[in-house]
Design a protein that fits this description.
The chain is mostly beta strands. The protein has helices spanning 3-8, 18-30, and strands at residues 41-47, 50-56, 65-70, 73-78, 97-102, 107-115, 118-125. It folds into two domains: 1-32, no CATH class; 36-131, Sandwich (Immunoglobulin-like). It contains two helices and seven strands; from the N terminus they run ααβββββββ. The strands form two sheets. The chain has a four-stranded antiparallel beta sheet, with no helix packed on it.
Length: 140
């Protein structure tokens, strides 16, 4: 096990969480890259099992956007070419972007909506029945 993880996280109480500790440790030691903070976004907790990611995308059309989920990562990308437009001033960006969000196990995209320049992606934490708490009978 990585020595910095052992120093940073209480690994003696958790089994099978090495991937999570490694990712958290990487973010703690390298920092989170905020240099590419475009587009601005919110993460809203609706209830215990529902979250929404909101991205401010004024100037984009629905056709300019792509949403994919692969291997526990939500990837939202987009952009369009304005080469045929002769701007006197361009203050609303429509540049190409790619934002990634790591999803916890059993988190699934419920829907995506694009309305009034705001992209909303709703996520649900859907724990399968076999993963829910259960009472174990004690044999005599």
């Amino acid at each position: 096990m990585n020595a910095s993880i052992a120093r940073t996280w209480p690994t003696s109480h958790f089994v099978g969480f090495e991937r999570i500790w490694n990712e958290l440790d990487r973010h703690m030691t390298q920092g989170i890259d905020t240099s590419n903070a475009f587009p601005r976004h919110n993460i809203v907790k609706i209830d215990e099992d529902t979250f929404q990611i909101e991205l401010a995308l004024a100037g984009y059309a629905k056709e300019d956007l792509t949403i994919e989920v692969e291997d526990g990562t939500l990837v939202i990308s987009g952009g369009k070419d304005d080469e045929d437009v002769d701007y006197v001033h361009k203050g609303i960006s429509t540049k190409k972007f790619r934002r990634t969000f790591r999803l916890n196990e059993h988190v699934e995209v419920h829907f995506a909506r694009f309305e009034n320049g705001m992209l909303t992606v709703e996520l649900l934490h859907m724990v399968p029945d076999e993963k829910k708490p259960q009472t174990i009978d004690i044999l005599s």
